[in-house]
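user: Kindly work through both lines:
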Amino acid sequence: MHSRTGCVDTNVGVERVTEYLLQQATTKCVPQLWQPKSGLLMINDLPESNIDLVSPCFCLSKNDSYVVSASGKMVSLFNMLIFKRMRSFMQSPPAATCIVFYPPDNNIIAIGMDDSTILIYNVRVDELTNKLKGHSKRISSLSFSTVLNVLVSSGLDAQIVVWDSITWEKKNNTFLEISSGWLPSELSETHVQFDKDERHFLAVHETQLAIYETTKLQCVKQWVVGNFCARIAHAAFSCDAELLYTVMRDGIVLILGASDLVPRFEIDPSAYLPQHIRTRVYPLVVAAHPQKANQFALGLSDGGVVIIEPMESESTWTAPLQVEN
């Protein structure tokens, strides 16, 4: 197993860079930060105070040409081909906390807000079309299913709500079953992600992983963290939805089978973090490669990213893990 990010030729155009990253991301190259020749950077506006409390968020359009992002102030739409800010909207407060494009129409986005509401916004006409109310605390995650025509939302209230994405009416809701022995931390967020069938979704909470059937909001599988274990920082399906890549707050990465939520592999932080930074740098988020089922990336607290995949001799996560220092 290696843990270096892939390199990109800085002379390659943005479209080719996107294609290169999707097809050629590898652990075998020394990482480079790609920047356009124009020198433009996509930078969000930051609030004047309480920067530490900001919840940065962004999402990519279906064709990877646009990104919508926010960092505590206005939401901005950027053209990724030229790194140009196209427009800004939704002056805070309240601040945006999560954003997702509506799959059938890239002009429409759903924005979770710090005040517990969800806004449906049409970027093309610069118009707020709907305001959804159902949570009692900050929205932490949103995910669409085009198969079921629903939007699933989650928040700091440990509640999951299913909305009709045609009428935007509330269809169903439930609360995570959290053991009474657990005391929620200050930012006890819940994140949701649809399986590839778009009929089941993963709910990630610091205390548990749970897979739900969407229509009835029935929990069909659950993996709960032990009382004396580190809490979950983040988790994500592999692109084929066969595995769950889960990172704990102590830096340990667990790879679970999605069919049974049984941990199969454990990766120690020493496998991907140099010793001299291990005590002050930790992973915050995990993202699965969209085409390579056995490759995933970890976003670190110092702004770094590491790519992790099995050893060449193994090629998949189906054999006992062997870590090389």
Notes: Residues 1-23, 321-325 have pLDDT under 50 and may be disordered. The first strand starts at residue 57 and ends at 60. The chain is about 5% helix and 40% strand. The radius of gyration is 20 Å.
